[in-house]
Amino acid sequence: MPTLDQTHDPSLRSWVESANEPSCDFPIQNLPFGVFQRKDAKEQPRIGVAIGDCVLDVAGCIEAGLLDGIDAESACVLSASSLNQFMAKGRRTWSTVRHALNALLQVGNTRLCDDAQRRKQLLVPMHDVECLLPAQIGDYTDFYASIHHARNVGSMFRPDNPLLPNYKNLPVGYHGRASSIVPSGALIRRPMGQTKADDADLPTFGPCRLLDYELELGFFVGPGNVLGQRIPMNEARDQIFGMCILNDWSARDIQKWEYQPLGPFNAKNFATTISPWVVTMDALEPFRVPSTPHGQDDPPVLEYLQPIDEMAYDITVEAYICSAQMRESGTAPMLISRGTFTDMYWTIAQMLVHHSSTGCNMNSGDLLASGTISGTSEDSRGCLLERTWRGQNPITLPDSTQRKFLADGDEVIMKAFCERDGAVRIGFGECRGIIQPAQ
Ligand code: MN
Fold first, then answer.
1. Which of 107, 132, 157 is the last residue in one of the domains?
2. Same domain, 111 and 192
3. CB 106 within 8 A of CB 99
4. What distance in angstroms lies between residue 384's CA and the mean position of ligand 1's atoms?
5. Could you read off the pLDDT of 67-86 as tens digits, one per residue?
6. 267, 224, 244, 248: which is closest to 133 by C-alpha?
7. 351 by DSSP, 3-state: which?
8. Structural domain of residue 76, as residue ranges?
């Protein structure tokens, strides 16, 4: 059962009016962390919290004595230019800071609300800031935890044997590239690469022709473990700071030619986009639910991977496409797929525990991603490869053009949110990227 406290109280309202709109991603019950810079201001990046359509300058609030119960060490890590040190502090600190922010932003707390000058300084409209990466991401790993995605993709390449033998025994993953992770809004250059047509004798080098997105969620490691010591399942929850939306851009033609025997390489390393606001596990607590049970005939999960807690999260994820022509004519982006995170075969706790089971050290700010989130229905398939079934069933956009894969100028927009009776809806914001022509 979820453990709720007063920060989740659905009756709470903020004096930041925009936070109380029913469709708002960032009500007072959410308070996701990010790193921002005021546009046109020469300042170091700062840690902020999203509230309504604004960003609250967290370090500024601490300097002004507005947050209660924050010790000197926590104040110090929150004045940094990335969230790594705060992530390293652990759950008690995260929770203390969340409570202090929740108190400051509540209706009835006048300390910042009634101080017009300070409010102007510390509460910045979202459109006046640039959001940066929330952490310095030392390592990035991508999993493959949706059995529906694995089965769909597997069946295209191996119709008789879609799931490889290990799939139901361990969360499959690959080590991704941390250096090319970019925040929402960064332009995405269509990669060049080596591909080979089935009937060709030799490969060629040129622009990727089958460019795709993958709709995923990522999660950030909290305190982490030292090399040689694994993270046991009963510590997994305390080791995860929060989650973001992640687009694992994928060059399918490059992938097809290169992926055997060692897995994805250049097909994935040119860019990964993440949403800038990290929704904490505390904020997600009302939406923690039991995972979808494994099939009756599925093999037993080995003891080190056995869940001891409900560790699925009821998060709805969506992918939209907006072509250049649609943007010019003011046409709304088209919803391509909508899935749910409860459809995954493996939980984020199992991914983390398996990753560290060798003694591999997970560091604060490391990013782990779920893999493409696909469900059983066609409109819940989280990438174009599946959605158009390798291009066999193209999608017609509102501008009457067709898509098998992404075209130059296309913008992919991903959203995620949590809704349930008795809780206030929270959202993740957006994860956007526009495809630029190859160079
Ligand atoms: Mn992926």
1. 132
2. no
3. no
4. 12
5. 999 999 999 999 999 999 99
6. 244
7. helix
8. 6-132
